[in-house]
Amino acid sequence: MNLLLLETDDFVSVDEVVLQGRRLQHLNEVHRATQGDTLRVGQVNGRMGKGQVIEINDRHARLSVSLDQLPPPKLPLALILALPRPKMLRRILQNVAAMGVPRLILLNSYRVEKSFWQTPFLEPDATREQLLLGLEQGRDTVLPEIIIEQRFKPFAEDRLPELTCETLGLVGHPGPYAACPRAVTGPVTLAIGPEGGWIPYEIEKLQEAGLQPVQLGERILRVENAVTALLARLF
Amino acid sequence: MNLLLLETDDFVSVDEVVLQGRRLQHLNEVHRATQGDTLRVGQVNGRMGKGQVIEINDRHARLSVSLDQLPPPKLPLALILALPRPKMLRRILQNVAAMGVPRLILLNSYRVEKSFWQTPFLEPDATREQLLLGLEQGRDTVLPEIIIEQRFKPFAEDRLPELTCETLGLVGHPGPYAACPRAVTGPVTLAIGPEGGWIPYEIEKLQEAGLQPVQLGERILRVENAVTALLARLF
After folding, report:
1. Model confidence over A29-54: pLDDT tens digits?
2. For chain B, how long is the longest CA-to-CA vector?
């Protein structure tokens, strides 16, 4: 991890934390932290700064922390993703948090297998865990908002037009469309389909709601790869 | 898979193939192909076209094929990657093949764990298998060239300067460097470090060989994500 994330419960006083579990293990085994070492730390949904190891052993670590920096700005983006298969979902949640996406909407689509909605990886605790890993990777503290939309039509008809309003609305889709724009400056609403792509009805509905189809060339990328490629190109 | 890749051994006549194993299973279980169905096919390192199912059952599939299209152009790129951990290596090989990288050099670095070089995933058969999965995903037939460079210094001093010559030489590295350029047109040599980054000595050597450090912003991406992001931005 490139940033040690602190939860409210870790604080034993205003500037001191005690850590156990996964983060303690990481400090011991990967950082091989010893007394006096200084680390980058951040408070979940709060500021970032430095932490100094006061005491560390195999039961707990005690750090003195000073949080005086703002986390990096988020991308001006709402990302809509057809729910990916559970294993890929976990990596995408990490990537999305690491890259600075502030809001992720997981949407149903004709080509999303019904069983994907049953995965325990969609539980709030499970998504939070993956998002935290991504924030630790990307050095950010602010958890993205995750919105679950299990019905395509009411989302596309009733809520999407408002979301898209005054943003550049795009839907990534292979086909004879314009190339995805580069280095945009304003806010973007971007939708990315499932493996196999959106069906024509869905593309039509997304277009009606203000998203224009754009493509990334003739090569078809896996969804997690397409997410990264589109964000890197847009921002 | 978005393209059914055919090996020389699959051909029973000039325009007919018989398939078994993984691809047969995929045809049966994912495509649910039946007699008369037409699929995109390509010959490994050859042309692409259409295949029509003549016969399919749970023992084999017989297709009549017509190969009349060239595969998509590759990126004008030599990609140098500090050897990633085995699990990530597999995904990176797939991504690299899907995105059209023609040449991948896997290089040692101070922060590459020695054990990574022992992985069976580096064996030619194993890398070929992952590259084929990537080509099937990205709809390409031409296997990227994989070069193994297990010693950093002789590679950086003796072979890299020639490789970099008359290309835009870049090394992705977090720090106070220029932002990675966008939408370049000429050939590029791009080096991407291990988790934890190149050490200063390595950056110095890469610079001497003609690679200039560029960064992608203050967020630190996992290597596989950085590869995709840098390629999407550059091309």
Report:
1. 999 999 999 999 999 999 999 999 99
2. 61
